[in-house]
Each structure stands twice: as structure tokens, then as C-alpha cells.
UniProtKB/TrEMBL annotation, chain A:
Function: The pyruvate dehydrogenase complex catalyzes the overall conversion of pyruvate to acetyl-CoA and CO(2). It contains multiple copies of three enzymatic components: pyruvate dehydrogenase (E1), dihydrolipoamide acetyltransferase (E2) and lipoamide dehydrogenase (E3).
Underlying gene: pdhA
EC number: 1.2.4.1
Annotated source species: Gluconobacter wancherniae NBRC 103581
TM ranges: none
NCBIfam families tied to this protein: PDH_E1_alph_y
Catalytic activity entry: N(6)-[(R)-lipoyl]-L-lysyl-[protein] + pyruvate + H(+) = N(6)-[(R)-S(8)-acetyldihydrolipoyl]-L-lysyl-[protein] + CO2
Protein name: Pyruvate dehydrogenase E1 component subunit alpha
Protease as UniProt keyword: no
Keyword match Protein biosynthesis: no
InterPro entries for this protein: DH_E1, PDH_E1_Alpha_Subunit, Pyrv_DH_E1_asu_subgrp-y, THDP-binding
UniProtKB/TrEMBL annotation, chain B:
Record text on subunit structure and interactions: Heterodimer of an alpha and a beta chain.
PROSITE patterns the record matches: BIOTINYL_LIPOYL, LIPOYL
A GO term, aspect molecular function: pyruvate dehydrogenase (acetyl-transferring) activity
Chain intervals with Polar residues compositional bias: 95-107
Stretches the record annotates as Disordered: 87-114
Name under which the protein is recorded: Pyruvate dehydrogenase E1 component subunit beta
EC number per UniProt: 1.2.4.1
Organism of provenance: Gluconobacter wancherniae NBRC 103581
Keyword Oxidoreductase: yes
Cofactors (names): thiamine diphosphate; (R)-lipoate
Catalytic EC class: oxidoreductase
Catalytic activity line of the entry: N(6)-[(R)-lipoyl]-L-lysyl-[protein] + pyruvate + H(+) = N(6)-[(R)-S(8)-acetyldihydrolipoyl]-L-lysyl-[protein] + CO2
Gene3D superfamilies: 2.40.50.100, 3.40.50.920, 3.40.50.970
Physiological role: The pyruvate dehydrogenase complex catalyzes the overall conversion of pyruvate to acetyl-CoA and CO(2). It contains multiple copies of three enzymatic components: pyruvate dehydrogenase (E1), dihydrolipoamide acetyltransferase (E2) and lipoamide dehydrogenase (E3). The pyruvate dehydrogenase complex catalyzes the overall conversion of pyruvate to acetyl-CoA and CO2.
Length: 334, 455
């Protein structure tokens, strides 16, 4: 079976329904194809500045998304396109923001790193590493203040886990029993610095221990494992028991940003991950094993391709923002 | 259908590059994500991945070719079953140039730079009967009134609840509003400020008390990058109704790290409002306005003023507009512009000047951002002389801004160069005599005014 994606043993875990697997597959393929297109448009000069792709990490956000309900809030750093799509933001609106057009979520004023949706409860899109952790703790604070059982999902990388405010936030969330799921997307490299060179902590999932924050270390390349962990964390938070920490062991295939040649890791390492651990291939194999046909998967892929093509088209025909937009949205009219 | 593979831009600044190596040969099948070539930019060698599945039909630019402009076709990708002939002549078709925007914002820069801030400001009015209260009481009353008025308002900070405030500003609030709405935090400015900003992004209205504004330096990233910019970056979707307040400037012999004015720091930031009350009425009226404002507002208080008494309207609805200065003393010979504790210094100076027959007008700015340009300019047109007075440092300070406003808008009315009185350009020393030497006093203002009449 050399060269085939490994299929995790599911004999003990609850299998997902065919419908749920199809949904997960569609979302993961959507992110993959969307990001590939974004890379292409960047190459064509249609997207500028910084652009950080999510390729390789799809299972994390999709697995967690399976347990999000209306009203749950999410927030992340600048590697954010996947989170937006899973939050239900349209591919058109996200892509048009990437190209800096009026049809983008921020009407072209945010760009790849700064998109938000009040409607979908997606709170950005933040460019300062670690800032989203205390902001996301505030989203959880608001949930509790309003007496809802909504949860705040806060994504950050293993690189951000070196920031002081992360631990200030852990303390505050534990102190106030805030419904906050901290998701460390450990993709092994904070830009060009490997985790071994960045932290003396051998196990990031234990970083919440001093505050008694329960946690799980999860195979973030396996959407089934992510989904199970997410369910446990969600139930914990919704029951009012305070924050939960999930360390997702994942991997990004691309460089940190578009201009990163990724010389800090061996090409064979990337190839090995893609060949044996790819989250989409793994899910696909599982679906085929469950009796879902190739045709069904093809249909999903075709649908996704059309969605992305439509977004790309929209992102190019949508006009640039009017110069008057310079002066709007600086302050809310009092 | 055959499609061209274009020379990609691989960094924010790349305009051209060199094809270092082709890793795939003509006729080979490639999948999306496969590395097909290496490109050298001015900074690094980068891998180029295929973005679509297909067959490499033609290589248009051989390896080793230098200075290939971004967007030049470098190869042709064929669909399954197509032959190279159907590829067409991509090499000759020039790459679509990036269209320049119909109207360049840069071209309009001079026009837009002077566009007036469209801030709707309610007028100040006569509020009738007053009583003498301290600035401390005024601030507490303002918070209590707004906490009563709006369930979404809460107070958070170090020692604000059980201790009743490090400077006793929140005296009694825990008793009335309970621990849900008056919240003690650990010593964790970065964390609790970020948390409060996050809560504000959902529509709650936090009042964040910094024990002193010096400690807000720990949290300044959230004030500037998170609170002030999110509305703009979200295309107007997500405002941040939050107040950051605390004592600012020098207190009394607390040394360099606890004695500094941050007015010009925050005044610099679009997306923030900044107020600096002097009297009890200022404190109560401006803090209430700050809490109701849908934007982040910095309230720069002053520890020495906390215990001072001033008349304050007793009307339960009393509130002041943000963005309006107050003429505390009318005069015709020189305009003194001050804020916070320096308003008192300017008024003292005005009394001394009156003894010399100079009739000074004293403007209490109340609001640093937006600045009440109209009141300043009208006054200067009347008096033809301007001296700004601030406790902060001179370089890029509020005084520099005030003097420039006079120069820009009232140059022809000026009889002397505008002048500024500032704290000395040194960290504030501890020694009693040295500290006294470093901070503006009425005599400095009098001297600055005298110079304006000497020439």
C-alpha cells in the first residue's frame, strides 16, 4: 500500500453520517481550491500585500465548524480565509476583499488579513500575532455577560503561543469561567522558526494547566479526530464549565506567506505530509470505504470549482472602492 | 481549454524575476500543487506550483532567462486530449497590464487631506443650577448615571470593585451595580484590555479603567490596532464603543515612569477620540458623552485634579459634547489654549497678565481629538496672539498642533509667532526641586506672552 494515504482506524470512534462527511468534504475542498486560486491571483498581481494560505490545515477549521451553531463566534489571526468560509461567509465576498474591491467584506479596506462579518459572527482577521486571543476571550466574556450558551472559538498558531497576552487571557477566561475554546493550530513553524526553536514547552496542549484549563492534543490532519475533540470542548463550554484548550497538530503546505520560500524545512518533509497525511485525501478514502461513490465526490468537486470560479470572476469585475471610501468608517457617527 | 501559465508575483514588491529551473518537462501531466519551476527574485529562490491540473504543453520561456516581467506567459497548460497546436500563440499576446484605478486617490491627496472631519457635535447649553463637587465625585457620578441608563455598560479594571478604586473614583459602584458590572481584574492590562475590546466589538460598552495611563502602555496595541482600526478595516461593520480612562500626566513626585502626558500619542490616531477634562463639569459631562459615544474614547484624567472642587450642573441629564472647547475667560489681547490641569495654570497666568494690563482669553480645549479648530481660530483672529500651554513634552506635542492650526488658518491675523509652553524635554525627576523646575507654571506662560508683545 506504499504511496496510499493512510486510513485511520475508526473501529472505536463514532462514524460521521454520510451527509456530515459530504459537508466536511465540500468545505475542505472549497478551502483548498479557494486558496489555490488566491495563490494564482496573487501571482497575477490581482492580490497584493500579505497573503497567508490555509492549504494543509483544512481539517482543523472544518472539523470544529461541524459543531458550531448559530451565534457561536470565531476569531483568528491573518491566516484567515478558511475560517471565513467555514463561518459561512461567501467565497465571492472574501475573494473580492483579497483583490481589494468594493464587493469585498470590508469594501476593499481590509484585505486578506482583515475581514469581518457581523452577520456570521466572524470577528477577524487580525494582523498582530496573539491579539486575537484576548479579543476572542472578550467575545466569550460577552456571551457570558448576555447569559447565552454561545461559544467563542479562538484560533492561534503555536507561534502566537509564545505571546504573553495568551496566558493573561487563559487566566482571565479560567477566572471568569468564560465559554472559550482556544484552538492552537500547531503547524510546526511560526514563519521560519520551528517549534523546537520557539518554545521550551514540550506539549502545548498542557499550556493551560496552571489555570486548570482542560485540553486535548488532536491529530489536526484528521477531520474525524478534530470533530470528536470539538464536540467535547463545545459541550464543556456550553455547560458553563469555562474554557477548553485544543492543540491541533497540523501542517501548512505553503510558505508562511506568498513571499516565503520556506527554506527552513526540507522539501521531502512537505512531500511526505502531503502524501501520507493529507486531510482531504484521508477523508476521501474514508468516504469511499463508507460506500459513497466517486461520482458523488466528483459532483462535490465540480460544484466547488464552480463556486470558486464564480468568486474569481466576481473579484475581478467588482469595481475598486470609490475614493470617497477613504473617509468613511473612521468613526461611527455619534 | 489551453491556458497560459503566467510569470507569478511571489512577493509584495516583485516586478520581475529569473526562471532558474523548469522541474517539469513538456508533455508531463501536472496536478494542482505540483512544483513546476523555480524562480529567482531579488530576495530568494521560490517554487512555482501548478494551480490547475493538465499537461505541460509548451515552455515559452527557457530556464536561465532573466528579467521576466510579472504576468508574462511562461508556459502553456493543456487539458487532457489537447495537443500543443491548440495552445495558440500565448507568447505573443502580451500580459494584461494591471489596470490603474480610474481615479487615483493619490492624485486627490491634497484635496482629501484637508477634508474636514464630519463630526456631529451637540451644542453646549446653559444647564442651570450647579453645586460644588470634586472631579472625583463627578467622574463617579458620570459612571453611575450611565451604568443605570444602559445595561450594556460595565466597568473593568484593577481595584475598581472591592477596593473602590485605586484613586476612589469607583466608590460605591460595586454596591449599586454588583460584580457582574463592576469587575476587578488581575494586574494584566494587555489581557483585560484586549478582552474588553473584544466584548465591545460585540456591542457591549466597557469602561476600562487604567490605574494610571502609564500602565495602558502595556495595552496600547489593543487601543490602537484593535479598538481604533477595526471599524475601518471591517468596512463599517464592527464599531468599538469603549472608554479607556485613568489619570494622565504628572502627579506628585512619583518619578519618570508614572508622570507623563499621553495626549499627543492618542491624538495622533484616526479612529480614536480623546478628551481631557479640567473641571468637575468637564469630567462629568465628557465622561458621560464618552460612554455613550459609539467609538473608542480616551479620557485623560489628572490625579491632582481629582480632589479639587468645581461647580457642576445638578441637572440629571447634564452632558457635554465631545469636540467643543470652552472659553473659560474672555479676553482681547492674547489667546491661551490649554487642557486638563494646565487650564488652571493658564487662568492664573491670565490674572497676572491682567495686572500688567494684558487681557488674556483662556480656552479650555476639553477635547483633544477632534480639536475645536473653530473656537481656536476665532479667538486668534480676535486677539492676534497665541500661546499654547501643556504639561507634556514639546516635540510633536499638542502645542505644535495648536500653533500650526493658528498658522494655517489665521496667519494674516497674527501679530507674533505662535508660542508654546510645555513641560521640559526630560523624563520627570523625583527630587522635589527638580520636578518643580520641569513642569509649566504660570510665570512661564506670562513670560511667553510678554515676549509676544516685546517685538
Amino acid at each position: 500500500m506504499d504511496g496510499m494515504p493512510s486510513v485511520p482506524d475508526r473501529s472505536n470512534g463514532p462514524a460521521l453520517s454520510p451527509e456530515t462527511m459530504k459537508r466536511a468534504y465540500k468545505d475542505m475542498v472549497l478551502i483548498r481550491r479557494f486558496e489555490e486560486k488566491a495563490g494564482q491571483l496573487y501571482g497575477m498581481g490581482l492580490i497584493g500585500g500579505f497573503c497567508h494560505l490555509y492549504i494543509g490545515q483544512e481539517a482543523v477549521v472544518v472539523g470544529i465548524g461541524l459543531h458550531m451553531k448559530q451565534g457561536d463566534k470565531s476569531i483568528t489571526s491573518y491566516r484567515d480565509h478558511g475560517q471565513m468560509l467555514v463561518a459561512g461567509m461567501t467565497a465571492r465576498g472574501v475573494m473580492a476583499e483579497l483583490t481589494g474591491r468594493a464587493g469585498g467584506y470590508s469594501r476593499g479596506k481590509g484585505g486578506s488579513m482583515h475581514m469581518f462579518s457581523r452577520e456570521k459572527e466572524f470577528y477577524g482577521g487580525h494582523g498582530i500575532v496573539g491579539a486575537q486571543v484576548s479579543l476572542g476571550t472578550g467575545l466569550a466574556f460577552a456571551n457570558k455577560y448576555r447569559g447565552s450558551d454561545e461559544v467563542s472559538i479562538v484560533y492561534f498558531g503555536e507561534g502566537a503561543s509564545a505571546q504573553g497576552q495568551v496566558y493573561e487571557s487563559f487566566n482571565l477566561a479560567a477566572l471568569h469561567k468564560l465559554p472559550c475554546i482556544y484552538v492552537i493550530e500547531n503547524n510546526r513553524y511560526g514563519m521560519g522558526t520551528s517549534i523546537e526553536r520557539a518554545t521550551a514547552s514540550k506539549d502545548l496542549s498542557r499550556n493551560g494547566e496552571p489555570w486548570g484549563i482542560p485540553s486535548r492534543k488532536v491529530d489536526g490532519m484528521d477531520v474525524f479526530a478534530v470533530e470528536q475533540a470539538a464536540q467535547e470542548a463545545m459541550e464543556h463550554c456550553r455547560a458553563g464549565k469555562g474554557p477548553f484548550l485544543l492543540e491541533m497538530e497540523t501542517y501548512r503546505y505553503r510558505g508562511h506567506s506568498m513571499s516565503d520560500p520556506a527554506k527552513y524545512r526540507q522539501r521531502t518533509e512537505v512531500e511526505e505530509m502531503r502524501r501520507t497525511r493529507d486531510p482531504i485525501e484521508n477523508l476521501k478514502a474514508e468516504m469511499l470505504r463508507a460506500g459513497i461513490t466517486e461520482d458523488v465526490l466528483k459532483d462535490i468537486e465540480t460544484e466547488v470549482k464552480a463556486t470558486v470560479a464564480d468568486a474569481v470572476e466576481f473579484a475581478q469585475v467588482s469595481p475598486e472602492p470609490d475614493p470617497s471610501e477613504l473617509w468613511t468608517d473612521i468613526l461611527v457617527e455619534a | 481549454m489551453a491556458s497560459p501559465i503566467l510569470m507569478p508575483a511571489l512577493s509584495p514588491t516583485m516586478t520581475e524575476g529569473t526562471i532558474a529551473r523548469w522541474l517539469r518537462k513538456v508533455g508531463e501531466r501536472v496536478q494542482s500543487g505540483d512544483v513546476i519551476a523555480e524562480i529567482e527574485t531579488d530576495k530568494a529562490t521560490m517554487e512555482v506550483e501548478a494551480v490547475d491540473d493538465g499537461i505541460l504543453g509548451q515552455i515559452l520561456v527557457p530556464e536561465g532567462t532573466q528579467n521576466i516581467a510579472v504576468n508574462t506567459p511562461i508556459a502553456v497548460l493543456l487539458d487532457e486530449g489537447e495537443d500543443a497546436a491548440s495552445a495558440g500563440d500565448f507568447a505573443r499576446s502580451s500580459a494584461p497590464a494591471n489596470e490603474s484605478p480610474a481615479t487615483s486617490p493619490v492624485a486627490n491627496a491634497s484635496a482629501v487631506a484637508t477634508a474636514p472631519p464630519s463630526i456631529a457635535v451637540a451644542e453646549d447649553r446653559d444647564w442651570g443650577e450647579t453645586s460644588e463637587i470634586t472631579v472625583r465625585e463627578a467622574l463617579r457620578d458620570a459612571m453611575a448615571a450611565e451604568l443605570r441608563r444602559d445595561e450594556d455598560v460595565f466597568l473593568i479594571g484593577e481595584e475598581v470593585a472591592q477596593y473602590q478604586g485605586a484613586y476612589k473614583i469607583s466608590q460605591g459602584l460595586l454596591d449599586e451595580f454588583g460584580e457582574k458590572r463592576v469587575i476587578d481584574t488581575p494586574i494584566t492590562e494587555h489581557g483585560f484590555t484586549g478582552m474588553a475590546v473584544g466584548a465591545a466589538l460585540t456591542g457591549l460598552k466597557p469602561i476600562v479603567e487604567f490605574m494610571t495611563m502609564n500602565f495602558a502602555l502595556q495595552a496600547v496595541d489593543h487601543i490602537i490596532n484593535s479598538a481604533a482600526k477595526t471599524l475601518y478595516m471591517s468596512g463599517g461593520q464592527m464599531g468599538c464603543p469603549i472608554v479607556f480612562r485613568g489619570p494622565n500626566g504628572a502627579a506628585a513626585r512619583v518619578g519618570a515612569q508614572h508622570s507623563q502626558c499621553f495626549a499627543s500619542w492618542y491624538a495622533h490616531i484616526p479612529g480614536l477620540k480623546v478628551v481631557a477634562p479640567w473641571s468637575s463639569a468637564d469630567a462629568k459631562g465628557l465622561l458621560r458623552a464618552a460612554i455613550r459615544d459609539p467609538n473608542p474614547v480616551i479620557v485623560l484624567e489628572n490625579e491632582i485634579l481629582y480632589g479639587q472642587k468645581f461647580p457642576c450642573p445638578v441637572d440629571e441629564d447634564f452632558i457635554l459634547p465631545i469636540g467643543r472647547a470652552k472659553i473659560e475667560r474672555e479676553g482681547k489681547d492674547v489667546t491661551l489654549v490649554a487642557f486638563s490641569i494646565m487650564v488652571g495654570v493658564a487662568l492664573e497666568a491670565a490674572e497676572k497678565l491682567a495686572e500688567e494690563g494684558i487681557d488674556a482669553e483662556v480656552i479650555n480645549l476639553r477635547s483633544i481629538r477632534p480639536l475645536d479648530t473653530e473656537t481656536i481660530v476665532n479667538s486668534v483672529k480676535k486677539t492676534s496672539r497665541l500661546v499654547s500651554v501643556e504639561e507634556g513634552w514639546p516635540v510633536a506635542g499638542i502645542g505644535a498642533e495648536i500653533c500650526m492650526i493658528a498658522t494655517e488658518h489665521a496667519f494674516d491675523w497674527l501679530d507674533a509667532p505662535p508660542a508654546r509652553v510645555c513641560g521640559l524635554d526630560v523624563p520627570l525627576p523625583y527630587a522635589a526641586n527638580l520636578e518643580k523646575l520641569a513642569l509649566p507654571k504660570p510665570e512661564w506662560v506670562v513670560d511667553a506672552v510678554r515676549k509676544q508683545f516685546r517685538d
